[in-house]
User: What shape does this take?
Amino acid sequence: MTAADQTKTTDPDRKRQLGQFFTPENVAGLMASFFEAEWKDVRLLDAGAGTGALTSALVRRLCGEQHHPERIDLTAYEIDGTLIPALYKTIENCRQHCCASQIEFTCTIRNEDFVVNGSRHGELFDSDRKAFNAAIVNPPYRKIRSDSPDRAVLSSAGIETSNLYTAFLALIVKLLEPGGELVAITPRSFCNGVYFRPFREQLLNSVALTRLHVFESRQAAFDTDDVLQENVIIHAIKARSQYNRVTVSISSGSPGSAIYAREVAFSEIVTPNDGEKFIHFPVSDALTHARGVMQALPCLLSELGLSVSTGRVVDFRAREFLKKTPGRDTVPLIYPAHFDQGFIRWPRTDIRKPNALAMTQETRDLLIQSGTYVLTKRFTAKEETRRLVACIYDPERVSAPLVGFENHLNYFHANGGGMNPELAKGLAAFLNSTVLDLYFRSFSGHTQVNATDLRNLRYPPKSTLERIAQRLTATSASQEQIDGIIEAELGNGTAELRNSVELRDAVISESFNEC
Ligand SMILES: C[S@@+](CC[C@H](N)C(=O)[O-])C[C@H]1O[C@@H](n2cnc3c(N)ncnc32)[C@H](O)[C@@H]1O
Assistant: This one.
């Protein structure tokens, strides 16, 4: 019997009593994707492991990482002995995945009550065993009566709460080391329920909330298990104070559905001086607006006569041809480091990257004819304000008949060659606009922008892009100027545009599905 079969056959009364609502694979994948996951040694806690869906999702994600951990040491608690054989099977799969990725995998399965054992905090770790640095959990949901033994055990650990799920969260936070990461899917009730106020206070004093995700539909995330509670996922880091920024996101919960995300100040999550400490999910109008503007745009990239490709020069494969400075028989080699206020500044002596590529028989196919191109960065640093950063390659600023674009760039072109400079100017402004950046963040939690993402976007008509270019009088426009012009050209007519185009179903597959 597979782990999935096992979850279907569990007796309904038992399921209810033990709060057994099992996490669907797509939701487990989403949860796993929320970890920062920069560990070398993962000491993972899965409390209320069920058949191991959550551990399995995280292990799969970690095995797929380019820089994956060296070791994973799992501790899984599961009170229901009937689930243990299925849990062992899942763990065995995890072990095999890890083995294939050369990750050392060890585990301890505890067929026991997490409340009782988790509360014995001090005794849990032997002297040579360290606290957990990661926890993933879908805790059981059940009221704890005030005269129950569980309540007494929790009180002795300093935890006052009336529901098993918040008890699990409070215990897990205690068992994490400072900086340890927690990802939990829970009912939303703790965010504003009156009875959860002491829990909220305790939680906000011991972890920094970094990501809050809400499902649009109450049932979508757990449709096979008939859960009627609205569910949220939180990612939190054990810390004494909150971070300034929190990512809030929303999705339907069904497999492959788009995620709309935004970063907000922590003060938008918990209003300063709110005695109740309500936790808000400000999934805003701005996002909805950005989504509306983008979905109403009428053109595919091909309808503009343009394509987008990834830079052909993979520098470590062309090492012998790289030149620090341009010389005889070299061509300009353009990296993201050459981006400067909307244009390419080349050559640059203030960067570590090479400026040129030797022109030889071997490099000929890597080069393209000079012309006007729009370039975008494929990767941006987390701290960068925008995910999409575009600039113009202007042949009047870089004098050379051929050019090489490095692989960390995408370049927009017309049939392999340059494009009309006005179109390039309008396109670069559109790509640099806040509305597009918001839209991009809404479906991608990644800092990576692939050519496919750009290919799948919708664009304004050529005439609009050229009008945008004409309105941009300054050579390097500020963000405000760009946004003002884009808003004037696209924003106000949103409703009209939306009526005049047939909206295509842009099914955006999430990267977490690929884990
Ligand atoms: C909501 S289910 C989640 C299962 C699994 N983690 C998943 O996401 O599919 C909660 C699990 O906690 C287990 N559980 C309930 N009370 C428990 C307790 N006191 N100690 C340990 N496990 C418990 C249940 O048997 C159930 O398997």
